[in-house]
Design goal:
With 204 residues, the chain is of the alpha/beta class. The protein has helices at 25-37, 62-68, 92-98, 144-152, 166-174; strands at residues 3-4, 7-8, 13-18, 43-47, 73-77, 82-86, 104-108, 117-121, 136-141, 159-162. Helices cover 22% and strands 22% of the residues. The strands form three sheets. The chain has a six-stranded parallel sheet with strand order 4-7-3-8-9-10. Strands 1-2 form a two-stranded antiparallel sheet. It has a two-stranded antiparallel sheet with strand order 5-6. The longest helix is centred in the first third of the chain and has 13 residues, at 25-37.
């Protein structure tokens, strides 16, 4: 069970993917979801949209019409899917409570929340974010050169990974122990000094 600010969040293990814009957060989030799901784990995803640009119910659909008519919440259910859209702000901890039946919750964004985090580093100045956050358990570098630069600075407090080595990252995340309100221990480091091409960023 995990807690944030004294609030029980339920049983899932939680990992956050955070970073500046265009550092590959969505690509890494999707890779973690896929990797955990292939292990037979039930995974939920939460994404933060700081600009409020998303719109799940498209114009012309019944759900869009209901919302425009004034419904404060709209649910759409089929034999295999359920979607709920509420016209309100929801706290992260409340959303996590709603996902208590899942094995894992992978969160993209919400960088100031207190859950275990992987920080995405595409450029050297992205490293500045690491010292601004709590509960960082690993840093994902876009290139071996960036990883070596960080090592040269003498900071070995966090596990280091290469962006393209997603399977290694999944395996390291799986090793995270469930937290009981304590600061997370650092993940065992899985560094691979290879020179594989870096995947294209998703632009998020």
């Amino acid at each position: 069970m995990m807690k944030e600010k004294g609030i029980d969040v339920g049983s899932p293990q939680i990992i956050q993917i955070v970073g500046y814009k265009n550092t590959g957060k969505t690509t890494m989030t999707a890779a973690l979801i896929a990797g955990l799901a292939t292990k037979g784990l039930k995974v939920a995803a939460v994404k933060h949209d700081g600009h409020d640009h998303f719109e799940m119910d498209q114009e012309g659909t019944d759900s869009y019409q209901f919302g425009k008519a004034g419904a404060a919440a709209v649910a759409v259910m089929s034999p295999h899917r359920t979607a709920v859209l509420k016209q309100q702000h929801t706290r992260l901890e409340d959303m996590l409570k709603a996902f208590c039946q899942y094995d894992w919750v992978v969160i993209e964004g919400f960088k100031h929340a207190a859950y275990p985090k992987l920080v995405m580093v595409r450029h050297a100045n992205d490293l500045a974010l690491v010292n601004q956050l709590q509960s960082v358990v690993g840093i994902v570098f876009w290139s071996p050169e960036l990883l070596e630069e960080a090592k040269s600075r003498g900071d070995k407090s966090f596990s280091s990974f290469l962006f393209n080595d997603k399977q290694t990252i999944v395996e390291a995340v799986v090793q995270l122990n469930r937290l009981t309100g304590k600061e997370p221990s650092i993940m065992h480091t899985f560094n691979k000094d290879d020179d594989k091409d870096i995947d294209e960023d998703d632009g998020v």
